[in-house]
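= Protein in question =
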Amino acid sequence: MPNTLIRRVRLVPVAGVPAPDDLVDLRIAAGLVREVAPDLKPGANESVTDADGRWAIPGLWDHHVHMGQWAATLSRIDMSGTAGPDEVLARLRIHLPTLSAEDRTSVVVGFGHRSATWARQPTVAELDEASGTHPVVLVSGDAHNGWLNSAALALLEAPTTSGALSENDWFPILARLDTLPGAQESAAAAYSAAVAKASALGIVGVGDMEFGSGYLDWPARFAAGIKDLRVRAATYREGLDDIVAAGLRTGDELGESGGLLQMGPLKIISDGSLNTRTAYCHEPYVDGASLAHPRGKPNLSSDELIELCGRATAHGLTMAVHAIGDAAVAQTLDAFEQTGAAGGIEHAQLVDPTDLARMAKLRVSASVQPAHLLDDRDVTMTCWPDRADRCFPLRSMIDAGVVLRMGSDAPVSPLDPWLAMAAAVYRSGDDRPPWTLEQAITPDEALAASTDGQTTLAVGSRADIVLLDRDPLAPMSTAAKAADRLRSTRVEATFLAGRETFS
């Protein structure tokens, strides 16, 4: 780890911890801030960066990312914003003739369509008509369903279907995309590009919720040169036996990474999503009369969830439980309470007010993705208009004492902490008034939820530091202007453990 002196910075106060009024220098050694004072003298073998009055914050974290899918999305067909199957097929018809001879033998993958508000649902037959025998996989914008043609269904050994696959039928197929010929070679370049983009946004760490064996894959990536990110690699129930056999516990270092790579939590997907109308709720969906499960449905029984929480806890793993509907949140809290599990709920998109107090009492954090509310606003008013005031209840969570950890769920929303913070502060992404503005939080709170618990830079802080062109927390007259300031803040440099990863 390098010895570094960052001169003439202005510290942004984070999480209510005061900052000096004047410019200071930061001396870094062994991955930590060792000295904070004006006019420090450079030491021997110490590199010097002149911040020239720029603002400094702790490195940013995205606590919920699917890094493999996000990296792959950078080269997939963009299907976002499509209003129905016909628009998706039109984009596909434009794309297929552009493929090279080599690409014509590989699977074509698109990403981003959201079918919840479409007038009709897609069929395999119409995708076959547009694509012929070329395998095509179209991943939904929330990654909870996939629309495949017959060639792709056969190639990936997927269940027979006439429409899209969702949830437990779909997730194993999504994971198999990584096993296709050429996938690993293209993935290496994609990961490198994705990590570079993250560093340029001030991101120093992620909670990687990707499927597969991240505890093995990340050390290999690190050894191959992808070193500019801290990673906590989750495992799923399919990998739990291997993790237990390896004796890995949450927080253990993975490989020889200087502490940058760690074993993460056990990730459980306890229910579905709003867009597939499978998020598990106490009350039926307003438009759910024709659904096989009008309230959505759990992916596991309460007994299964309790067994997994108990086993993980006994072997030193924390929990990261995907729960979007309010009934799924309640079921998850029951399991935490009965097993003494530690960790958090991922998403917590719809929450009964009585469960907020339980979350705080049980010290269960809320890993939330504020940018989702920009995408889910319209479908919420279709499916859950009677409970929209309880959706993305960030203000209520903080007021109840629940710890927020913010992220993106990339590729479901972009890997962009500034977008997430702006969405949390001003709950609108277009010209419409903010959606349930009473659930907005302040810029200070949004930043504090994005730094992995790190507060104002001080002696003993991690040497994960981001230099900015402005103070992102400067007082503004309205929430809209505060959000605009967050979105327009520019990262000038990023340091990971004292090493510059972006300038």
